[in-house]
Specification:
The protein is α/β, with parallel strands linked by helices. It folds into two domains: 20-271, HUPs (Rossmann fold), CATH 3.40.50; 272-324. It is 52% helix and 9% strand. It is built from 16 helices and seven strands. The protein has helices at residues 6-17, 23-42, 55-68, 85-98, 108-114, 116-125, 170-198, 208-213, 234-243, 248-251, 266-269, 275-286, 291-298, 302-318, 320-323, 333-336; strands at 47-50, 73-77, 101-104, 136-141, 152-157, 163-167, 201-202. It has a four-stranded parallel β-sheet, with helices on both faces. Strand 1, helix 3 (55-68) and strand 2 (73-77) form a beta-alpha-beta unit. The longest helix has 29 residues, at 170-198. The protein is globular. The protein starts with 5 loop residues before the first helix and ends with a helix. The mean pLDDT is 91.
């Protein structure tokens, strides 16, 4: 006998299986789409992909190699002096595993020249005057679970290993983020140099969480010609990595920003929850699942789950401009109709 609330009948099973993926079918669909879009829309010979050693870029490279053959996928490893050594090693491991042509281009000198480190450190020293080259730092969000409003905190580690933390003011936050955004934008410039050189397209590597919630830098890692996994939740990307037989070190890699000198998880800096719970929360929000139904699956209270939903909405509003093309004061129909 049916009830008035069909979710109550199937909530446990549906939530448990909501993000299950038919991996062989998904690979076939993405492989076909990459080939078709590259030929019919982009008119390019292959793809360039920046390899961070993380799960998203690794799966994108593997899918492109499946679609086009490894000889038409060019990998770029773009470390700088604050990158994790593990990221570079996993990137090289993937290139060897897939048989990709690749190049390593250290961006430290270029970032130094444009003032990335200098501008960031200047802002940090307004909070920690002794901050210098031997120190490390990152930005984190306040404890979501405690029920407080989101705010950003600066965490620094001094040369003796002692960690200090202080709440960030808006001026310092904006300057630190603006400076570190040089990293994503410079990486993208290098990607497009090689894409132009080879007559290739640039492959974007964002998965659903990053794409939906605006976790990318405009004209930085948000720029691309083709984004093959933007519709897939992070746990689905991990499932594809295992199905595609990627190395274990990549399949078990935890999502990080690899932007700050201190290790920083994506959930520390941007998302309310770890990626697996955030995936489920976003899926549930997109499918109109009521907070009381979702809350037990997240191990949160109803009130906390409602805050997660409000945070999803707020991030979509705040980052809408990142998805938008340049605004025109007057339409140019002869060009706009072709897009």
């Amino acid at each position: 006998m049916k009830t008035d609330d069909p979710w109550r009948e199937c909530q446990a099973d549906r939530l448990q299986r909501a993000l299950d993926l038919d991996e062989p079918l998904e690979v076939r669909k993405i492989r076909r789409s990459i080939r078709d879009l590259l030929r019919a829309r982009l008119h390019k010979r292959g793809v360039v992909v920046a390899l961070s050693g993380g799960i998203d870029s690794s799966v994108c490279a593997a899918l492109a190699a499946e679609a086009l053959g490894p000889q038409r996928v060019f990998g770029l490893l773009l470390p700088e002096r604050e990158s994790s050594s593990g990221s570079l090693e996993r990137g090289k491991l993937l290139c060897g595993h897939l048989g990709l042509r690749h190049r390593i281009h250290d961006l430290s000198a270029a970032l130094e020249a444009v003032g990335c480190y200098r501008e960031r450190d200047q802002a940090i020293r307004r909070l920690f005057p002794d901050y210098g080259p031997a120190w490390r730092s990152k930005i984190v969000i306040g404890d979501f679970g405690a029920g407080a409003l989101h705010h950003f905190r600066l965490v620094v580690e001094d040369p003796s290993g002692v960690v200090h933390e202080r709440r960030l003011g808006l001026r310092e936050y904006l300057q630190i983020v603006a400076a570190t955004n040089y990293k994503q934008r410079l990486r993208k410039s290098v990607e497009y140099f090689h894409a132009d050189r080879l007559n290739y397209a640039v492959l974007g590597t964002a998965s659903r969480l990053e794409y939906d919630q605006g976790f990318f830098v405009k004209n930085g890692d948000g720029s691309a010609d083709l984004k093959p996994i933007a519709h897939l939740y992070k746990v689905q990307v991990y499932a594809l990595a295992r199905y595609l037989g990627l190395p274990a070190a990549i399949c078990s890699a935890i999502p990080t920003t690899d932007t700050y000198s201190l290790p920083q998880g994506q959930d520390e800096f941007y998302f309310s929850l770890p990626y697996d719970k955030m995936d489920l929360a976003l899926w549930a929000y997109n499918h109109d699942v009521p907070p009381p139904t979702l809350a037990p699956a997240l191990a949160l209270s109803r009130e906390q789950t409602e805050r997660v939903y409000r945070d999803i909405e707020a991030k979509r509003r705040a980052t809408r401009y990142q998805h938008a093309p340049p605004l025109l004061t007057e339409a140019v129909p002869q060009v706009n109709a072709m897009v």
